């Protein structure tokens, strides 16, 4: 069976207009990810780790190379060439993204955010309600906060909610951009438990973690951005 994801010659640069300068963020990134595997991306600060994930998720549009993804709906596609509509479909149904930041609609409670993540996949409301209860309980978000607006939450609470919204979809491919950055050790353990469960259920993952101990025993492969090597 073909790989779930194959990144070939990926390159992305940014224009700094006020300096009239082009900055190369990443270039010649290449790795292959089979279904059910977990790749950890490592590299010094500023080396482009987040740029790689955002290029796969299409937050950024890559300028060079291919990002070949084996979709349930579309077959093998180049994520760098898909239409916005196709990208939005994949984000709703197949590809999840978790960052250390939470961007939410105003006047939407924590519980509603998690429920909406399930409903937008076409699942019934009752299933969405139960999934939200299970996810919020697992991450030990105080039940008194479930019907509150997340803009009042601490950084760690927002991060746990962000992860809950992603994992209730059981995505085929999950991108993790420093998801444990502001979490205490107990919360990190909860994240690890969820990652292990998703992996056991067949989810394929790419993750960036500053905490290398957290990655130990989780990743099947590690891609070093500086060395351009996959170990």
Automatic annotation (TrEMBL):
Keyword Lyase (UniProt): yes
Recorded GO CC terms: plasma membrane
Presence of keyword Nucleotide-binding: yes
Alphabetical list of InterPro entries matching this protein: AAA+_ATPase (IPR003593), ABC_transporter-like_ATP-bd (IPR003439), ABC_transpr_LolD-like (IPR015854), CP_lyase_PhnL (IPR012701), P-loop_NTPase (IPR027417)
Protein name: Phosphonate C-P lyase system protein PhnL
Single GO molecular function: transmembrane transporter activity
Superkingdom per UniProt: Bacteria
Coiled-coil intervals, chain numbering: none
Source organism: Cytobacillus depressus
Database matches in PANTHER family: IMPORT ATP-BINDING PROTEIN, OLIGOPEPTIDE TRANSPORT ATP-BINDING PROTEIN AMIE
Keywords noted in UniProt: ATP-binding, Lyase, Nucleotide-binding
Pfam families given in the database record: ABC_tran
All copies of domain ABC transporter, residue ranges: 5-231
């Amino acid at each position: 069976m073909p790989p779930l994801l194959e990144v070939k010659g990926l390159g992305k640069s940014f224009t700094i207009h006020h300096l009239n300068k082009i900055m190369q963020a990443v270039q010649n990134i290449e790795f292959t990810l089979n279904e059910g595997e977990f790749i950890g991306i490592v590299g010094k600060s500023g080396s482009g780790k987040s740029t790689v994930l955002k290029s796969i998720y299409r937050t950024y549009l890559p300028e060079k190379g291919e990002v070949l993804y084996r979709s349930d709906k579309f077959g093998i596609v180049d994520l760098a060439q898909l239409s916005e509509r196709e990208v939005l479909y994949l984000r709703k149904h197949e590809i999840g993204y978790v960052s250390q930041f939470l961007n939410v609609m105003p006047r939407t409670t924590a519980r509603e955010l998690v429920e909406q993540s399930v409903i937008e996949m076409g699942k019934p409301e009752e299933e969405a309600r139960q999934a939200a209860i299970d996810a919020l309980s697992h991450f030990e978000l105080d039940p008194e906060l479930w019907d509150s607006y997340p803009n009042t939450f601490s950084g760690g609470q927002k991060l746990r909610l962000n992860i809950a919204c992603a994992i209730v979809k059981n995505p085929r491919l999950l991108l993790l951009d420093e998801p444990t950055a502001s979490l205490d050790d107990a919360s990190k353990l909860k994240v690890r438990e969820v990652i292990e469960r998703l992996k056991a259920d067949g989810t394929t993952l790419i993750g960036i973690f500053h905490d290398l101990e957290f990655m130990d025993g989780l990743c099947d492969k590690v891609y070093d951005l500086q060395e351009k090597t996959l170990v």
